[in-house]
Amino acid sequence: MTNSQKLSVNDLAEMVGGRVIGDGSQVVERIANLDTADESEIAYVDSKKFFDTARNSKASCLIVPVDAGGEFKSSAVIEVANPKLAFSIVGAALNPAKRRDAAIHPLASISPTADIDSLAYIGPHVAVGDYSHIGPATRVEAGVVIGDNVSVGSGCVIHPNVVLYDGVSVGNNVILHAGVCIGADGFGYVRDRMGYHKFPQIGTVVIEDDVELGAHTCVDRAALGRTRIGRGTKLDNMVHVGHNCDIGERVVIAAQTGISGSVVIEDDAVIGGQVGFGDHTRVLSGAIIGSKAGILPGKIVRPGVWWGIPIQPLDEYKRLNAHLGRLPQMRGELKDLRQRVKELEDRINKNQQDKSK
Amino acid sequence: MTNSQKLSVNDLAEMVGGRVIGDGSQVVERIANLDTADESEIAYVDSKKFFDTARNSKASCLIVPVDAGGEFKSSAVIEVANPKLAFSIVGAALNPAKRRDAAIHPLASISPTADIDSLAYIGPHVAVGDYSHIGPATRVEAGVVIGDNVSVGSGCVIHPNVVLYDGVSVGNNVILHAGVCIGADGFGYVRDRMGYHKFPQIGTVVIEDDVELGAHTCVDRAALGRTRIGRGTKLDNMVHVGHNCDIGERVVIAAQTGISGSVVIEDDAVIGGQVGFGDHTRVLSGAIIGSKAGILPGKIVRPGVWWGIPIQPLDEYKRLNAHLGRLPQMRGELKDLRQRVKELEDRINKNQQDKSK
Amino acid sequence: MTNSQKLSVNDLAEMVGGRVIGDGSQVVERIANLDTADESEIAYVDSKKFFDTARNSKASCLIVPVDAGGEFKSSAVIEVANPKLAFSIVGAALNPAKRRDAAIHPLASISPTADIDSLAYIGPHVAVGDYSHIGPATRVEAGVVIGDNVSVGSGCVIHPNVVLYDGVSVGNNVILHAGVCIGADGFGYVRDRMGYHKFPQIGTVVIEDDVELGAHTCVDRAALGRTRIGRGTKLDNMVHVGHNCDIGERVVIAAQTGISGSVVIEDDAVIGGQVGFGDHTRVLSGAIIGSKAGILPGKIVRPGVWWGIPIQPLDEYKRLNAHLGRLPQMRGELKDLRQRVKELEDRINKNQQDKSK
Fold this sequence. Notes:
The structure is a homotrimer.
Chain A: E1 7-8, H1 9-16, E2 19-22, E3 27-28, E4 30-31, E5 41-44, H2 51-55, E6 61-65, E7 76-80, H3 83-94, E8 103-104, E9 109-110, E10 115-116, E11 121-122, E12 127-128, E13 133-134, E14 139-140, E15 145-146, E16 151-152, E17 157-158, E18 163-164, E19 169-170, E20 175-176, E21 181-182, E22 189-191, E23 196-198, E24 204-207, E25 212-213, E26 218-219, E27 226-229, E28 234-235, E29 240-241, E30 246-247, E31 252-253, E32 258-259, E33 264-265, E34 270-271, E35 276-277, E36 282-283, E37 287-289, E38 294-295, E39 300-301, E40 304-307, E41 312-313, H4 314-325, H5 327-356
Parallel strand pairs in A: 4-5, 5-6, 6-7, 8-11, 9-12, 10-13, 11-14, 12-15, 13-16, 14-17, 15-18, 16-19, 17-20, 18-21, 19-24, 20-25, 21-26, 24-27, 25-28, 26-29, 27-30, 28-31, 29-32, 30-33, 31-34, 32-35, 33-36, 34-37, 35-38, 36-39, 37-40
Antiparallel strand pairs in A: 1-3, 2-7, 22-23, 40-41
């Protein structure tokens, strides 16, 4: 939910490095879907499939690929190389993120040793522990709990009821959605006759710049050392990241994926939802793992598209599935062959009996 | 946890439209399981398998199907068409939901522009943002965070630490369990050379009347437009609902199921736990999807029972599994046939050599 | 995150019942990984694979197995039967759990009828309801919400934003990580023509001594009776435990596993991550269930290692997988046999035609 701005087509085109065709002085107020966009709204099209819809759109302005050609009903068109990207930039400009005036709410509880930047916002019922630092232009929304010795950079949005355990470090321009939990103890125990002893979980967590974590995602602290979420990485809701994981830069992980301890995911990997990683697996840069896949402990996942439980290259998975689909036919063929071999045996036996008569 | 009431068998029978056999003036205080029910307690039986247990129950009152017949030790019996439903109604009557006197706790933080009905309860450490509305007879428990421009209807129970982002709309008689998160940004990005740009997530979420969401369930806001949970729909714990989903009325979804963006689930569908939906799938009314199933993006799921990853009709799944179970036997048969064909070939070759001598 | 202590090698050896070789008077300040350990640090080795690394470690002290033999560069070595266990004990001694002075924060909201032990710590923005009890030396961190009639024992750590619903009981020395939710309503409804009626969820939850629950784990209250987590049991993050489950003692369950209603898991069972249990299953003591497994409702899981969806003994699963891997070869063999049988048939037919000429 954001506050809306009004901007001219020319302004927007400049932002996205696009070429204006038509009336660039027009004012745009809102982004909209292609099929519902109306006056004062801007929409985008990037697939030929929707060019017809686009040509008849009532939107005041359309963002189109450079090869779109032809006539549009809209009174202005912006040509760009990547319309979806341009639309995202325009959307951010028309709907700037919520701003809060710098303040510390009187119902917040701030340690006297905490260092809150004078340009930060601290909402009601927030707790900040000893020696923690909150950077400028960071919003800490209601109910957030920040432990001792935590560092949060500048320009962050910490949504309600997030919990940052002691010693955790969060970079700049990080977005943590509601209920995110960073730095809970990793899941490590040693068994003896009496039961389980906790293995020490005294490491930390480092969240680098430009990371966004979805609602209720949990990143556990390292046993020793650190758990890391690399710069520009985006995690969806309810992702579990175990202790000592090292998630690289610009990694994308969809909802409800679970990552066991000491997993390494290299830069730019793409991971689907509900995937499960055994401990000590390593995903190389260039790997794409489909939703619901399962990766056995210690596995190295090479570049390419992977699928299934346990994972295999998508091509092999499809081939195996094709074989599976032919199982009924194979059984039919087997039955037929048994019958024919039996007949052959009978005929040969009969032949030889005839001869030996 | 509820406060208990005392009611007579006659009163209860009237509530559920049942016929009393025995002493209707008796007082019932508690609901109980059939096998442990004792004096002042009421239990139910709906399966012939448990009729013997029921006949010997010490419960003061039993709810039984109309065709139960025979003798019961209980001094009163209520005959109804659907004993489990009647028991649920009786249970609600004997254990009315917790009530809070209307009040705004002094440790709550309420925007001066918020509109809190005089009959609502607002607990400690609750935050309510600008221009938000809370309806009559709604309980907002401790630690709940309600953003700006949120609307919550009447008769709702918002359990502790729920988060409603800006602009979200919640109907009447909705129950949101602890930690529910409504309206976090959907998971949408556009990639360029530098990394990921956020695709605008400026839509909203609409939760209709009589919905119940389990603990920690997350419903993301739409990119544009709205994400919807239809009237009377029930979601279990930790369900993830992505942006722009449209979940119909009276849908049931078990725990930890994950629903990607733009999925449509029509009225009355039944979905198991840990199911994963690819984006843009559509589940038609009448479909039942088994636990742990996986649905590929764009799939249309027709009425019937579905199972597996990727989903297939349960019958086909069972047939395939039967084929799989016979794989060892098939290999045995193949081996046997190879041997027999070899022998046939040898005999024929020998025959022909003999002849050609 | 913990405060660090300094202790001598002799002190540490005594704690773990180990034998000191070398300079026992040395002071150790920190635990460390074998490969990075340096002066004033202690590390452990328990696998021959790492003996070489260990012999060259710069750690001031090493914990080694009794049969390690040979020379170590470290100036002190502690020989023990179970090095990892000893290291855990040493780690706990060097990093004692955070302590809070007994206090009730002025921004907490405590019912006048609640009974808070004078040695308990209650953080800011905590709510405690009527007639609830908090035991001595228990820490209740910021934002925790405790309902009415809740009992929490001694020596517990209740991390931020945990929610304990009315009537829940928590034993001694229990650790509940951030966002844990105990006692939300179970997921039970009865369908009639109009929609779903809530089946009564008026039972409770009992968490026994020495339990640890990971961040965001949810344990639902029983419909009637109780849901139980047995003594010494450890659950990872985001585990879902349905109503009326009975989880025994010293059970270990990894992250994101989902347990439907009325499941029984006996003592000492070990369960992987993302496992799904159908309702009314029973896992016998001695069973080990691999990650991502699926268990059909009502199944009894016997001792041994189990795997797959639906689960089967690991050996059978491997055998079936081996058969599956040979499917392409089987199809090849079938094709070959069809060809050879065809040839045999042709030859025999030709033979007989020749003879009948």
